[in-house]
Amino acid sequence: MGRRELNGYPKDSRDELPPYRSTKAAEVVGDFAGAFGSQMKNGRIPMYVVKEEDRDFLFHVHFAQPFAELERLAESGSATIQSPWPQDFVTIYGDQVYQGMVAMTVTRVLPAVTVAGILDTIRNRVLSLVLEMEREAPDDDVAESLAPARVTALPHERLRRTGERCGRSRRHDAEPSADPR
C-alpha cells in the first residue's frame, strides 16, 4: 500500500495492480460514419470483433492513477468515465463492426461509481492499518489524532513513522493481498 496508492502505479504495471484497481469491464461504444453521410452515434461494439489478445486492453480499464487524480475523477460530477481507444486500434477494428460503416472514435465507458468504489477500498485499507496500529500500540492515540477528513490526505511519511513506533516494518508499500478485506 502506501507510496503507490498515493503516487500511482507505473503505466505498464497492469499485472502489479491490486485487484480493486484492475480489470474493470467497460461498455465500448463508437461513433460511425458510412456512405452518403450516414452516421451512428454511440454504437455498441461487441467483444467478439476484436482479437482475443487485444480484448483485455480494449474492453477493460485499469486504474493506475494516483489517489488524488482518482478523487478528481470521482468529484467531476459526471455519471460516467470515458477512456478512448488509441487511434491505431480504431483504424484496425473500425470497419469490422457495422457493415458499410467505419468507426471514427471508440470509447470505453464506465460508471463513475467505479472510481468511488476504488477510493472507498483505499480509505478502508488505510483505516484498517491505523486501527491495527492502534491495537498494537494503544497508548500512542494513533486513531484519535486522525480526523475523518484527514484520512484521505494522510501523508505516507506519517504512516511510516507511526508504523515504526508500533514496531512494524519500515516498508508499507508491499503489494496488497488478493482479498482487500
Description:
With 181 residues, this protein is an alpha+beta fold. The chain folds into 2 domains: 3-111, no CATH class; 117-165, no CATH class. It is 36% helix and 19% strand. It has 7 helices and 6 strands, in the order αβββαβαβαβααα. The strands form 2 sheets. It has a 4-stranded antiparallel beta sheet with strand order 3-2-6-5. A hairpin with a 4-residue loop joins strand 2 (27-34) and strand 3 (39-44). The longest helix is centred in the last third of the chain and has 24 residues, at 113-136. Mean pLDDT is 78; it is low at 149-181.
> How do the strands of the widest beta sheet line up side by side?
3-2-6-5
CA distance, first residue to last residue = 13 Å
Tell me the total number of β-strands: 6
**Can you give the helix content as a percent range?**
25-40%
What's the overall geometry? elongated
Residue runs with pLDDT of under 50 for 5 or more positions: 149-181
- Domains, number: 2
Could you give a short description of this structure?
By secondary structure, the chain is an alpha+beta fold.
How is the secondary structure organized here?
Layout: H1 3-7, E1 24-25, E2 27-34, E3 39-44, H2 52-59, E4 60-61, H3 67-74, E5 80-84, H4 87-93, E6 101-111, H5 113-136, H6 148-151, H7 156-165
Antiparallel strand pairs: 1-4, 2-3, 2-6, 5-6
Helix pairs in contact: 3-5
Notable features of this structure?
181 residues, alpha+beta, 36% helix, single chain
